[in-house]
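Supplementary notes for students who missed Thursday's class. We covered one full example, reproduced here. Read the sequence, then the structure, then the short commentary at the end.
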Amino acid sequence: MNTAQETKPVNLLSRLIDTGAHQKLLAFASLVALLIGFSIASPNFMQTSNMIAILQATSVNGVLAVAVTLVIITGGIDLSVGTLMTFCAVIAGVVLTYAGMPLLLGVLAAIAAGAFCGLCSGTFVAKMKIPPFIATLGMMLILKGLSLVISGTRPIYFNDTPGFDLISRGSLIGEIFPALPVPNGVLILFIVALSVAYILGRTVLGRYTFALGSNEEAVRLSGVNTDAWKMGIYALAGGICGIAGILIASRLNSAQPALGLGYELEAIAAVVIGGTSLSGGRGTILGTLIGALIMAVLTNGLRVLSVAQEWQTVVTGAIIILAVYADMVRRKQAG
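Structure (token representation):
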């Protein structure tokens, strides 16, 4: 009898691991299929310049998706990541262009602004008990308005900030290995992803992130200050959105205050495609990166094939629905 009781948790754990591995394998196979399909459909798809464009797009969406992964694992959702990214880019523009401060200070200001806004969202959710969907929807609208107000509804350019455009578009790897002109934005994405993967797998914050998504009430009853940890997770996610804001501003060499809406949908889709459960308690950064690559390849491939923008939006919406449905099926199989 004891043997059966000991075997049951082991079998359940193995089942969950197998389900997660199967999802990542399926996502990777889908990515390979998309690459092959678009390569056959258009000879321009596999050109070096287009591959770099895909990597550039993945760097921004991937960083946002990493931020969303943290929140979704807790069982929450963050609809404000796109406009928060824009808001952080505007803050960088104010510090660097309007105030004429050094480059490092502008980068730190953007990350700090993101962390503060994330902390506000976490406070709404944890302390005020506002549902994450509503709290972050409100924050999305607040940040959209603030970006327009602070910038005066005009783009802020970084022409007078030497080296700012190199943050995303330069290539440290390319200087060392000319045959590998990997943009710095991609390098930053992998640094962020590896850092967050380490946090999730090796730190107390990571353990509580999964625990909050699995059974928050049990964690609270064990004496843990769940509100503080949840606020910390939202703040961390916000700081990561600040990094995404720097990347997109560097890529465009400007802070576009009207930009941002729609990025949150692609980020959420990438997270779910990568195997993170919308119910919380399960997810990996590797899966999120694969999901972000899938979204970037799909968007770029449709553009190369001259598919109209409105139909690209239709495809994105359909993918989100399919990804959520697949998550529901996975949960039923795991249960």
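Commentary. Residues 24-334 form a domain with the ABC transporter involved in vitamin B12 uptake, BtuC fold (CATH 1.10.3470). The CA atoms of residues 135 and 170 lie 37 Å apart. If anything here is unclear, bring it to office hours.
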